[in-house]
Amino acid sequence: xxxxxxxxxxxxxxxxxxxxxxxxxxxxxxxxxxxxxxxxxxxxxxxxxxxxxxxxxxxxxxxxxxxxxxxxxxxxxx
Length: 78
Fold this sequence. Notes:
This is Glycine reductase. The chain contains 3 helices and 3 strands, in the order αβαβαβ. By secondary structure, the chain is an alpha/beta fold.
């Protein structure tokens, strides 16, 4: 689905826990997340720390959307 959305000109970020699968399916902008049961969070953290973690992931995804790319790119820790 990611490739079809991008084909019409809308950039997409695929946020996932298993990046090799994203690469295999052809996602262009890939942001690794935390864990399969909690892709955008970590219940072991305090509420404030988890909110900070989530914000960092969303901000990374927004930067990925703004970044011109040539082919598949994984936007890991910056």
